[in-house]
Amino acid sequence: MRNKIQHIVLLCLLTGMFTPVFAKETQHVLVFISFSMPKESLKTWIRDANIIHAPVVIRGLVNNSFKETIAAVNALTKEGASGVQIDPTLFERYEIKQVPAVAVVTSPRCVPNLSCREDYDVQYGDASLHYALKQIARQDDPLSPFAEDALYLLKKASHA
User: For 117, left (φ over 0), alpha (ψ -120 to 50), or beta?
Assistant: First the structure.
């Protein structure tokens, strides 16, 4: 199954369908969703993630179908928003057990099982990206500045 997912991800990247996770070196926020969530909620999460350039990650294919997954992504990203990335390994890596979830990480390019240390904070719940980031920022830990930077981008976009 993992090999099949890798081939699908490669195809998606080649066709430009999905956005690679951590495409930007400074990216420290990940948004985890599922197509089982309400459509309006998905649109809001994807829109807000786009504002802060946060990758949106799903665990797998819709009904184990590449065609249905593409249709679902296209239906949500018609307004010029970027797509999503299929990556079940990120769900495991950050111990995501439910969606939506927002993870703020210290080392976005840290490869698991190597010597780099990776800290992360996760917030769950279908409130909003703003709320999740605010909760992480309030923890006043080394990840708070990354959450505060993302909050600044969200606030700036809402005043534009």
Answer: beta
